[in-house]
Design brief:
heterodimer, A: alpha/beta, Rossmann fold, 5-stranded parallel β-sheet, 5 strands, 17% strand, globular, B: alpha+beta, Beta-Lactamase, Heat Shock Protein 90, 6-stranded mixed β-sheet, 5-stranded antiparallel β-sheet, 17 strands
Chain lengths: 143, 597
């Protein structure tokens, strides 16, 4: 867990970015911070789970293909750990099936890499307005 | 017209030969064995028959000749018995008797008649020669007749230089003894034996103990000539002796017997064995002809059968090869699909980083502190371009991946005419600018297809684009839909152009991935390969005919119902779903972004 800026108690939105690409993680988090977001990063599924256990994370942006615990497995663990925590899948993977499976498992939505940071922010904002305690079908038709 | 036919590497000729050999070897062996057996049987039989024939001729001829000699001897003895010597010694009387004899014997066999006293002088003589002064007292025949009372000579030429022999009988005794001598024409036996000739070489002749001919012989010469002692075995034996001998490499069958009436004359019957066996040869030739004819007929019928079987076999082989080719084609497409999906994935991650890095710099440039930065505008411009180009790449990879999802098998009712018309309309306006006219020949009540419209659209669009590219300076594209009376469960679509056509050598390759004749950068060489993959996926067949300079026609046969294993196959192929949709980055661009291929 390595917050890019101290958690602001007035700002309720804490984004946890999970990706094994360190450079991507660093730059994206900086850009989100630039947009007044509080950002935590994790380089693996295990690290993400540890962060969620310790910190009040508002939303998780989760890469699917990662070494060790992959995105879908991490998602399943997160659903058990914090059923209401919104998760947005972010993937560069060619297989759409994994992303749609993720949505069935309870992810809010998925985005394909590379994605526009503002689109991601929009997605985060709308995710935070939803209740995610109940798994839903896909609504990922916006590609 | 060039038609794409898969290569068939069957050694047809060799196969036919092998089958023919396998079928024929036993038949030929049996026939040859039967033929040889027949030959052995008939030859030995014929040889036996020839020997029997010759033995029989020896017997018959011997009876005839013995009879003739006996007859002559009987006549001479009869004359000497019934007429007293006084009468016979009277030349006139002897003349009367001689004339009677001449009339009695049609062939004028008696040359002369003489009565000779005990001292060897003629007492009377009737005949053509002047022999009255001749004295025979020292002649061997005279000595012998005086001694034994009877004498038959061998054939000799004598004073007259014509072949003859004499028959002499002695009557009386001591000084009053006398001899009646008759000279007989030497041709007597020859004329009889000449009539007994048989075949081309079969003949009967007589030799004496010295091997001198007493008659004429075809093989040995004329009177008094010696027969070849390599040929004849002159030796005493009872009855008929049969043996084989050869003269100048000619094999002879010889039968011989000593005469009874003239025991030192050997009657010989001989025939060239080949001549004797000639009838067998003729039979053998007829049999051989029959066998060869039979074998030829058998070969013809076997060849016809083999040809039919081979044709069937080749047909099956061609079908198998086609299936193999199609399998290879799908495997190639699968590989391409995996490759392109992999590339899309691999590009996305670095693309994401490029985008984010540029975005980050843009973010920084927006800060208050950067307002003093003189080149800020230049930086912003460059970064905009980086972001824009990364965005362009992102569009490509996103559309590639999203397309895979959108192309997920969705089988719907398809009105083929409507769909084809729709696709054609998309390109018709562009085409008309190049003076290309679309001709629609749609079958009116075409049945509804259950298929994947997006795939069909893609195939038709691709083929129409190719057709447009193939036409130089105007022409037409003919779109035809047809029911198939022979296959009611299928319909066909053909898209033909009046373009440049495809050279024969390229026809085999056009469905191969990356095969293109367009200039570098103008075509990926994947269009037709993808069409092939799609058509195959939806259970159809695609074929091409082309005449260089006249145009190309693609014909697609489509089933009314989707193949049953379609879903199973899609699942099995996993990531390769991208392939079964047959898409590549470029074709996606073509369809979704609209950039030229």
């Amino acid at each position: 867990m390595k917050p890019e800026n101290p958690i602001d108690p007035d700002n309720e939105i804490v984004i946890l970015l999970v990706d094994d690409e360190e450079r991507f993680l660093r730059t994206l988090s900086r850009r989100l911070v630039e947009r007044k977001m509080t950002v935590l990063t994790a380089r693996s599924g295990m690290e993400a789970l540890a962060t969620v256990r310790q910190t009040p994370v508002s939303v998780v942006v989760l890469d699917i293909r990662m070494p060790g615990l992959d995105g879908l497995e991490t998602l399943a663990e997160l659903r058990e750990l914090r059923p209401g925590l919104p998760v947005i899948l972010l993937t560069g993977h060619a297989s759409i099936d994994a992303a749609t499976d993720g949505v069935r498992l309870g992810a809010y939505d998925y985005l394909l890499k590379p994605c526009d940071v503002d689109l991601l922010l929009d997605k985060i904002q709308s995710a935070l307005k939803q209740d995610f305690s109940i798994p839903r079908g896909t609504n990922a038709e916006q590609l | 017209m060039n038609t794409r036919i898969p290569p068939v590497r069957l050694r047809r000729k060799k196969l036919a030969q092998t089958i023919l050999l396998a079928a024929f070897l036993p038949a030929v062996s049996v026939l040859v064995a039967v033929y040889l057996l027949f030959l052995a049987q008939t030859q030995s039989g014929a040889a036996g028959n020839a020997e029997i024939g010759i033995a029989s001729k020896v017997e018959n001829s011997k009876v005839t000749i013995d009879h003739q000699i006996s007859e002559v001897v009987r006549v001479v003895k009869f004359i000497s018995d019934i007429y007293p010597m006084v009468q016979l010694a009277d030349p006139k009387y002897l003349q009367t008797i001689f004339e009677s004899l001449d009339q009695e014997f049609i062939n004028h066999i008696f040359e002369d008649l003489g009565v000779i006293n005990a001292r060897g002088f003629h007492m009377a003589y009737v005949g053509p020669y002047e022999l009255l002064d001749k004295n025979y007292s020292r002649e061997p025949w005279f000595v012998e007749v005086m001694e034994k009372g009877f004498y038959i000579s061998d054939i000799f030429l004598g004073f007259r230089r014509v072949p003859h022999f004499i028959v002499a009988v002695k009557r009386g005794s001591g000084d009053s003894a006398w001899v009646l001598r008759a000279t007989v024409n030497g041709f007597l036996f020859s004329s009889i034996l000449d009539n007994i000739r048989f075949g081309n070489t079969g003949e009967v002749f007589i030799v004496n103990t010295k091997g001198l001919l007493q008659t004429r012989s075809l093989a040995n010469g004329t009177f008094m000539q010696p027969v070849n002692d390599e040929l004849l075995r002159i030796r005493h034996h009872p009855g008929v002796e049969l043996y084989r001998s050869s003269l100048r490499d000619a094999p002879f069958i010889i039968g011989q017997a000593w005469l009874i009436s003239k025991p030192d004359w050997l009657l010989v019957v001989q025939q060239d064995e080949r001549d004797a066996l000639a009838p067998v040869g003729a039979t053998r030739n007829r049999l051989l002809l029959l066998l060869v004819g039979g074998l030829a007929l058998l070969s013809l019928s076997a060849m016809a059968t083999i040809r039919l079987v081979l044709q069937h076999f080749l047909q099956v082989n061609i079908e198998n090869n086609l299936m193999d080719e199609q399998m290879i084609q799908s495997q190639k497409l699968a590989a391409i699909g995996q490759l392109s999906a992999g590339i899309a994935h691999e590009i996305n991650n670095p693309l994401a980083i490029i985008g984010e890095e540029a975005g980050w710099l843009q973010d920084i440039l927006k800060r208050e502190s950067m307002k003093e930065f003189k080149e800020a505008e230049e930086f912003k411009d460059s970064l905009r371009e980086i972001v824009s180009q990364a965005g362009r790449c992102r569009e490509i990879t996103h559309k590639l991946l999203s397309f895979a999802r959108k192309m997920d098998s969705a089988i719907r009712d398809v009105e083929l005419n409507v769909l084809l018309d729709e696709v054609a309309s998309m390109r018709e306006k562009d085409a008309s600018l190049q003076n290309i006219k679309f001709v629609r020949e749609f079958e009116k009540d075409l049945p509804i297809l259950h298929s994947e419209p997006s795939l069909l659209r893609q195939v038709f669009l691709n083929l129409i684009n190719n057709a447009i590219d193939a036409i130089r300076g105007g022409g037409e594209i003919r779109l035809v839909t047809r029911k198939n009376p022979d296959r009611p469960d299928k319909v066909s679509v053909s898209i033909g152009d009046s373009g440049i056509g495809i050279p024969k050598e390229n026809l085999d390759k056009i469905f191969d991935p990356f095969f293109t004749t367009k200039p570098p950068g103008k075509g990926t060489g994947l269009g037709l390969s993808i069409c092939h993959g799609i058509v195959q996926k939806i259970g159809g067949e695609i074929a091409v005919t082309s005449v260089p300079g006249e145009g190309t026609t693609f014909t697609i046969i489509l089933p009314l119902e989707p193949p049953k294993d379609n879903g199973a196959r899609s699942k099995e192929m996993g990531d390769a779903d991208l392939i079964t949709t047959g898409q590549t980055p470029r074709s996606l661009l073509q369809q979704h972004i609209g950039s030229a291929d």
